[in-house]
Amino acid sequence: MKIFKIEDGIIKFFLLALILAFIVLPISDSIPLLFTPSTPYLDVLVEKGILWEYLLNTLELVFKVGLFSILLGFTSSYIVTMYDFKFKSIFKVLLTLPLAFPVYVGAYTYSSIFYTNKWLGNIFTGKLFMEGSVFIYGIFLYPYVYLACRSYLKDNLVEYIEASKTLGKSSLETFIKVIFPLSWPAVLGSTLFVIFETLSDFAVVEYYGVGTISKVITDSWMGLGQKDTAAKASMILLFVLTVIIFSEKILRRKKRYEGISDRKIKPEKPSGLATIMIYLFLSIVVSLSFILPTYEMLVFTIAKSSYIASIDLLGIASNTLITLFIAIFIIIVISSIFASIVNQLKRGKKFFSTIAVMGYSIPSLILALAVYIFTLSLDNFIYDLFHIEWLVLMNTRTALVIALVIKFISVAFSNYSNSLAKISPNVFHASTMLRHNFLGTFFKVNLPLLKKPTKFVFIILFIDLIKELTLTYTLRPFNFKTLSTEIYRYAGNEMIEVAAIPSLVIVGICSLMIIYLELGGKNVKNRKDKL
Amino acid sequence: MLKIEKINFKYGDKKVLNDFSMEVREGERVALKGSSGCGKSTLLKVIAGLEKPYSGKLFFDGKDVTTLSPHKREFGYVFQDFALFPHLSVKNNILFGISGYKSSERKVLLKKYTEMLHIDSLLDHYPNELSGGQKQRVAIARTLITSPKIILMDEVFSALDEGLKEKVRLEILEVLKELKITTILVTHDSRDAEVLCDKIIEMYPI
User: Fold this and answer.
1) Order of all β-strands in the sheet with B63-64
2) Residues of B numbered 104-143 whose beta carbons fall under 8 angstroms of chain A's beta carbons: which are they?
3) Does some domain include residue A9?
4) Is residue A402 part of a domain?
5) Do A167 and B87 touch (CB under 8 A)?
6) Is A163 in CB contact (< 8 Å) with chain B?
7) Which domains does chain B have, with CATH numbers?
């Protein structure tokens, strides 16, 4: 039976091509720069071995951040899944709240904490923690691992644990031989997210003085205005990323172990000593990752409350919110259409899905550079055509919105795809059989079905976008201020106490949203589906 | 050999087992038969130690094992869904419970049980490469190789298609008879109970 009419194919092809062009074109426009001759700045970096040193630093950073996140994230998820103890539900929420902290806010706040608590600084700012940057990324990004592993452990392992126990294995043996090997793919997958976020940030390493490839890109692009040097350095960062992605695939061996039934793990009461260890571990983690930095920011905000009027918080917040809402609206529209088309494809589903989520894995600096080059060439084209004296796209946040859409479309796309995949294909076939074409089906069937996930997509996008700094800082119109850029500016001018005011606004709003997601039964684990 | 005395079990407020008692003698093959929700699988889990009753006692060879953890009971359990470890090959799944044995001993046991259950050609395969019947044999071999004092089987034939069921039943019966192993089988299928067991206990929902 022929399910779709001919015009359906045309509509779908046109929409697919349009969306793909929107995602791929801006990225591909920077490719010619890679083939320009080497620059003097790059030559110096190579000759003096600085580039090599920065490359090794980048690898060391991601390796250590990954390990630290696994230590914090997997251990916490194991504890809250396997054991039953007092105040567990509070700990469960508190463990997710570091996601409310933009990593750069964490870095600025901790610089003051390390200064006043020298012993803490001595532990976490040494070579092992690469001057503090490993600690900052790990302590604020581990919730990615925690959320993914918590969900995996709870839903997938009960039968295997029971089987291991009936085969005579103790709890420790079961952990070593069954729980950890089975959780390994989930651990690796979520750690990859931590690494993406680490590579996407430039502010933390810059603040703690760690030379990485990001520094070469920012210095050459924003400091020297050398786009071609930045593009070449981007290639090195992309190479690092490719190595990491392939390593993850090799280590994971493309496996993911699903549970056999929908039974969930029944937590056990820990013994006396184990209870003490659990409280100690969790208290240290939530104190360092949320309570201590929040307290520090509150103290700063109260101490510098007189600055609140001079900051123009309202203007900055409205700039932030307007940009954010425009980007979220476009992301939701594009991803709902794209997911609906891809859901109906019989072939090429994986390819198109990969394209849609590609933006998230590209480090933000590289994406920013690519979009910058793309919009600049479009602006030049507009100038040639209409002789408009100013850069239309660069000065109207268009470049920024394009970059935000490319970066974060994966969040919405993955959620929508998962929601649509759960619905029987016959539902859509029925609509077609009732004489609705693709657009009719989209408006009458898909959109109503996507209403529920949209609420969660909106919240997750809001949290991601309000925290975003790299794209906003590099692609904002001249003198355009948002909460994140103001935090960066104040912190860069050694006014960390003042930076705490807009920081607290971001952390406060994001915390409330994360608590809502946690208590609302749908946790942020869906972020992992971005891939 | 196994004595269950007035076992009570609840899921939340829902009572599943009410003062349940029974006895199983050495070498006996007992079927617990009943419709779904009557508590037969729960009873099997209580015997295995995977669930704890809120009252009642469980004795094995005269010893109270009610609070003993599952790995110390030395009972074998074949799960309805087989619960084969997906990250381990068939060989390593079967050897999982005897990893502490000497290598030569493990080899002998592996050969014995895989030949007995006709799965010796599958040793390097992974669970996702096996059919339902093959998975079942691997799960049974994995349990038998540990020389359990009792083997507990939870609806182990339910995943098989009708054509295969009768053949597998007879094969398993042969193995159980050969090993003279005490067996408790949970099933909702009368035919499973009739073919495999010499005692049938009917259970009803409370």
Assistant:
1) B14-24, B2-11, B55-60, B63-64
2) 142-143
3) yes
4) yes
5) no
6) yes
7) 1-75+150-206 (3.40.50.300), 84-147 (no CATH)
pLDDT (tens, 9 = 90+) of chain A, 531 residues, equals: 444 444 566 666 777 777 766 666 666 666 666 667 777 788 888 888 888 899 999 999 999 999 999 999 999 999 999 999 999 999 999 999 999 988 988 898 998 898 888 888 888 888 889 899 999 999 999 999 999 999 888 888 888 998 998 898 888 889 899 999 899 888 998 999 899 889 888 889 988 989 888 888 888 887 787 777 888 888 888 888 888 888 887 877 666 677 666 777 888 888 889 999 999 999 999 999 999 999 998 998 888 777 777 778 888 899 999 999 999 999 999 999 888 888 877 777 788 888 777 778 788 888 888 888 888 888 888 888 877 777 777 777 888 999 999 889 988 998 898 888 887 766 776 666 666 677 777 887 788 888 888 988 999 999 989 988 888 988 888 888 888 898 888 887 778 788 888 888 899 999 999 999 888 755 444 444 443
Cβ proximity of A34 and A232 under 8 Å: yes
Residues of A whose CB is below 8 A from B81: 159, 260-261
Chain B: closest CA distance from residue A512 (Å): 32
Are residues B142 and A160, on separate chains, in Cβ contact within 8 Å?
A: no
Residue B201's SS3 state is: strand
DSSP letter at A209 equals: T
Which residue from A136, A126, A121, A131 is spatially nearest to A68, judged by alpha carbons? A136
Q: Per the CB < 8 Å rule, is A159 touching B142?
A: no
Answer yes or no: is A375 within a domain: yes
Question: In a 3-state reduction of DSSP, which class is residue A217?
Answer: helix
- Look up the domain containing A355 and give its range: 1-33+313-480
Question: Is residue A28 domain-resident?
Answer: yes
Q: Does A7 touch chain B (CB under 8 A)?
A: no
Q: Which of B79, B87, B99 sits opposite A163 (nearest CB)?
A: B79
Q: pTM (2 decimals)? A: 0.80
Q: What is the Cα–Cα distance from A46 to B143, expressed in whole angstroms?
A: 62
- State the complex-level ipTM: 0.72
Identify the CATH number of the domain in which residue A368 sits.
Answer: 1.10.3720.10
Beta-bridged to residue B5, according to DSSP, are: B57
Which B-chain residues 161-200 have CB contacts (< 8 A) with chain A? none
Question: What's the total number of domains in chain A?
Answer: 1
Contacting residues for A309 by C-beta, under 8 A, at least 6 apart: none
